[in-house]
Design goal:
Largest sheet: 6 strands, mixed
Number of strands: 31
Helix content: under 10%
Distance between the termini: 29 Å
Radius of gyration: 22 Å
Shape: globular
Strand content: 35-45%
Mean pLDDT: 92
Length: 421
Amino acid sequence: MKNWVLLICLYFLTSPLLAQVDKIMDANIQTVLIFPKGKPLALPVIGLNSQDELLIQFDDLSANYKQYYYTIELMDMNWKPVALNPFDYTRGLTQNNIRTFTISSIAQQAYYHYSFTFPTASCRPTKSGNYLMKVYRQGRPNELVFAKRFFVIEQEVPVTASIQEPFDETISKSHQKIQMQLDVKRIQLQQPELLHVAVLQNTRYHDILISNAPSFIRGNQLEYNADRDFVFPAGKESRWLDLQNLRFKTDRIAAIQQLGYGSRIIIKPDQSRATIPYFTFRDLNGQYMISNTELIRSEDQNDYAQVLFTYLPKNGVAYEGKSLYLSGALTGNVLDTNARMQWNSSDKVYEKWLNLKQGYYSYNYILRSDQSPNPMHDFMWTEGDHWETENSYTIFVYYRAPGSRYDQIIGYIPLNSIQNW
């Protein structure tokens, strides 16, 4: 029990809840995507001074042409703005016009689909680190419509990592632990506390873990393998929803209502999977893909639908002092009011309406205490936790050189739990 309490305390001491930076400020802006070109499910990561490109896409449901511009902003490792002039980390223009768009066709919901790639010859980052891609109207930065995070990396610190069972036997079959070793000889590290390691599970940015306390230092090798380091609830494989065709009911859809101006999709009610035995299947780890089954252009011909998610609590009783969240990329990978399920006292269920574009979605439910949220318990009551669950992890190594005002990303490695068995 002592180890369990220590683990919880250190979670909050070493990893403060990161600022919510993935925001959409305009309700007409939908399906905002940012990913490496050709890899729609990958994190938005590019190498500094490389040929890597990000593809950024979004829809404007007002269906009127607007001039949109973008700029980038360098952030520190906790997603706070750095005290640097934009020209200190941008080569080229700080304001860039988005010129590529198409008008929706076939879809009942009219929209303009905008897309652009980054970096370009006229705008390129000159430093590694955390960045925000900020899009705004008419060349006026105060009319921001959305902000999405991305990462620019350097590979100066080789990382060796693996996923293990936690040492604490009380959570060894329900959680997963990341162990790693860093080789810092290239940077000749004199002050280990200036180097921070961050571990991200899937795309759950709200629960990223950060530490600057290696368990062992052996020459140029920093090891992170103490029982308190980088422990995550394993959860289960994500729930799924197939909206690739809005005319035919899939296994998860209870009803499709065609309203003339669009569709309403009623999903079969979800409920707790905590007591259901674990079985593996391929999932998207909380991500989604915009696609359809009719071989038409997904970007500007897929339609939108109002989708109702319903969750049945045990015995039809609301969770007192707790909030239920619909978690995944479909709610922006953040736990906010848009992700919080609403209690329907008449039907004794939790509900959430979302406006979703045709595609294939994955998601989970998270239940958290309002007064004392504990991320270690995120899936305990709603999904269940199983050590065998397939999860993706990403490790970022941040370094703030003495006297510097920003955090470089000098190490990066993705890994997946299935490589361990």
